[in-house]
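In the previous chapter we treated chains in isolation. Here, by contrast, the input contains two separate entities that must be folded as one system, with a combined length of 425 residues.
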Amino acid sequence: MKNDNVNQFDMLIAEALEAEMNSIHLTDREIEQQWMKFQKRNSNKKGHRKMNYKKAAVFIIGALAGFTMMNLVDIEISAWRVPNIVSIFTQNEDKVTVERNYSVGEGLQIIPEEEIPRIVTNYIEEVRDIISFNLKELPFHLEEAMIEGDMLHLNYINDEGEIRLFQMPQGLEFSQTTHFRAGSEINEITIGDVSYTIVRITESRTKIIWSSFGISHTMDIDYPIEFEDVIELLKAME
Amino acid sequence: MENSISSKEQVKEQDPIEDIQHSMYKWYYRDVYRTVYYITKEKELSQDLTNDAFLKAYDKIQSLEDINKFKQWICVIAANLAKNHIRKQSKLLTFYPMETIEDKHKTEDIVIEKVDREEKREKLKKGLQQLDPDAKEILILRYYHNLTYEEMGETLSLKQGTVKSRLKRSKDKLFKIFNSEGEKNEK
């Protein structure tokens, strides 16, 4: 755009927006009706405010733990220790459990839900600007990114389907337990110094869990993918 | 006597904070509602999100350093709420026709010169309607609410550079749509 056209275009945008906005009509009566609704909601909110701290704790634990099941008789298959990380796989007739215990990173703060800033964008540049840790990215089209406090959700789309990548700084003595349906295939692989747990839950759903430099990562792949291709995908991450 | 009783009752019922909230609500409701409606295009949803914005603003009003900026501040909150709501629904709705629009930069000068101002404004309105929620948000804040880059950055928790690049991207998208509309009409 040439400079004189830029100014002209800016003016046009302002004029068009003003005309559009002024065409949205509202009566005083409508505003009063909405005020009544607002008062009602405001008083309800005051009553529920104390509960939100509990909700925040549940929200964060839920994000880390995945889905859980009850009444289990677990059989330990294997357990081993890599520096600062312990992975334990257990299984019974109903499910497979992966526990990962870490002892790196700074403490995880529990923030009241109301105070967690939430930003949604589809520009990776913005995510890089906002996120304070070294985030991992995939070389695919970013469909959407959501930042909630220190938690980052990246949703990618490629020709095969959808990949969701979740990452966040983890706490001191951090522990994560994830349960999968029985029959899930679990593999552990080390690339560089990073230990990845790859769980094929169904033919078309694979979850990968790992921790690197104090950041916890979970990747969900929602399409059929070979084990070798998962490794290629992990290597392609930036 | 009756007057004196009724005025006492009134005093008893009045909550000064609620009075201030009510005044601010009446004063700014239209701007907030219009901001939301412009992004969502749904009346009831816009009413709900407007109330959400006021709830959030009143709840966090201590964090606002300059009360004179309340209008801009609450409009940013409202735009953000509307945009996030639309994003959540975006898998069901189609908002992004920009990918299919060819780059018509070479013809931009011709188009701007040929179409008169009123027509341009109408075309621009159509173009604005085709934009995604992110672009609408940033353009409304800049060109309707006249927020500075600094104010937008503060309230959107973005760096000024990010605000500028987002605004530029949004204008570029709009410009492409505008020009492609101009070319369609010429044909």
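The longest helix of chain B spans residues 160-186. The CA atoms of residues 157 and 163 of chain B lie 10 Å apart. Compare these points with the single-chain example from earlier in the chapter.
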